[in-house]
Design a protein that fits this description.
This protein is α/β, with parallel strands linked by helices. The protein has 2 domains: about 1-90 and about 180-375, 3-Layer(aba) Sandwich (Rossmann fold), CATH 3.40.50.300; about 95-170, no CATH class. Helices cover about 35% and strands about 20% of the residues. The protein has helices spanning about 45-55, 80-85, 100, 110-120, 125-135, 145, 155-170, 185-205, 215, 240-245, 250-255, 260-265, 295-300, 335-340, 345-360, and strands spanning about 5-15, 20-30, 35-40, 60-70, 75, 90-95, 175-180, 205-210, 225-230, 230-235, 305, 315. The strands form 2 sheets. An 8-stranded mixed sheet has the order 6-7-8-3-9-10-12-11, with helices on both faces. The chain is globular. It binds adenosine-5'-diphosphate (ADP) and magnesium ion. Magnesium ion binds next to helix 1.
Amino acid sequence: MALLEVRGLKTHFRTRQGDVRAVDGVSFELEAGETLGLVGESGSGKSVTALSIMRLLASPPARTEGEILFDGQDLLRMDEAQIRSVRGNRVAMIFQDPMTSLNPVLTVERQISEALELHLGMNRAQARRRTIELLELVGIASAERRSRDYPHQFSGGMRQRVMIAMALSCNPRLILADEITTALDVTIQAQILDLLKGLAREYQTAFLLITHDLGIVAGMAQRIHVMYAGRIVEKGTAVDVFANPKMPYTWGLLRSIPRLDEERRQRLTPIEGMPPDLVDPPTGCRFEPRCQYRRDICREQEPGLLTVDGVDHEAACWGTQPVAGGGWLIGRDWRRDMGDLHTLDDIKHEAATVLVGHAGDATESAPADLPPAGP
Ligand code: ADP
Ligand code: MG
């Protein structure tokens, strides 16, 4: 049994304009200790998926259907008390902006200790000791002294580390990390990713790593799921998705990965056009209006998420599915169409270069016990 099994998840928001189908039939699994990358343009439903898992959406306006099995228990059928004991205890979530989740008037030590006292029943002294250990674990230098500081006294990257320490406080089996490096500069971003990677390895923590930037999940995630307009449109191993992506939308995402060096960063090419209206999405493929490879069938019928090559690689695209009326993109040299693209090796190499190249001159104190850079 997988650690997390999401089946047919639908989260719709009731609005004056109609029902916004933010998440519209999403299914996936996450094994213990696995890092799964959930990737897609802004507005594709990634955050709503995570918030639905955490049961953090107000209802109304949100209405969630389906099953979210965590350790075999359906989170959607738990009462408030049960879900509270899961949240922050066995499942934790980290957000892009730690300032929204950290309490500005409490010291860092107080906030983490409170969680430890509440969830693990530690006494004051135990909680304080454990807090300092956790701050050291996430690479905060002089942890004992810094634990007495308030959130605003930390830089962005260090604050994100505090959030990670807080998420780790109760030894969660699963951490949902939503765009947590998006606001950070590339050097700090690489350090935080390296920290997460070390944690996943060391403690077998599973991560759902959410980002709009495919580059972030390269070298981090074992598998990648690509989201568009409330649906998962491609699923595969990281290697398959980077080396052999099957969905023109994924090709576009690959092309829009920012380079880590400044000069090339500006040459980021977003996918043309706008995501569809989620109140009244297209009947066929939801990406069809923006797809340069579309044919009539794409507008007329919605493609299923089918195995395209190999058991673990699925895509929802008529063009790459070997079915009647489809398949016209099979074997297409899409890399030539897309121009300047990154391979998985490029991206991993850049990430490693940034880490090594800036280790000495980082404006933030270098973490004492950061695990070594990955392959
Ligand atoms: P992502 O995280 O992929 O950028 P989100 O999951 O935040 O996207 O949002 C998915 C869609 O749901 C968006 O179109 C967004 O506007 C819509 N949405 C999110 N929250 C609400 C809400 N409270 N009411 C109405 N629509 C919402
Ligand atoms: Mg989001």
